[in-house]
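Supplementary Note 3. Input sequence used for the single-chain structure prediction.
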Amino acid sequence: MRAVGENGKGAVVCRQRRLWALTSAAVIWGFALSLAGQGIHAASRAMPAAVPKARIPAYHKHPPKGPLPHALPWREFAGNPEAENAYYYGERIRRVLYQLPCYCYCDRAIGHTCLLDCITKPDKHASVCQICLKELLYAYRQVKAGQSAAKIRKEIIEGKYEKIDLRKFQTPPHS
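The predicted structure, written as discrete structure tokens, is reproduced below.
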């Protein structure tokens, strides 16, 4: 049995309006979610390596001329072994980190000028950012393999750091 309006099309019009309202709500919800993904922690979800990066974040092209700030103490991150490892190993390769971009785009969000800032600034940014952690640990491995800062930078821009499995860094470093 079908409800009939004045012109016999009342039920059809009502269903069309409901469908239009549901479709509009879904589109608005999807748009809102995409805007929410613009935040710094949402940006921590790594993009697939095949997606070209729209903009290379800030970094220093040449080695530093003077002394660099030290990383925050790695023991400060007890209970977060990935951060402990990143801060521990990052301290040992500061001159390289100074020359690397950070693809969480913290240069725009919080004013960092290179990957080194992620472990030296009091905001403790790298401790909560998966992208920073992966880039830091990738850079350390590449330095240990004898790679130059320029080569590591090129590979970070290509997205090779995304293959770092943070589960392999569950044991705190030893000093």
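The radius of gyration is 24 Å. The mean pLDDT is 80.
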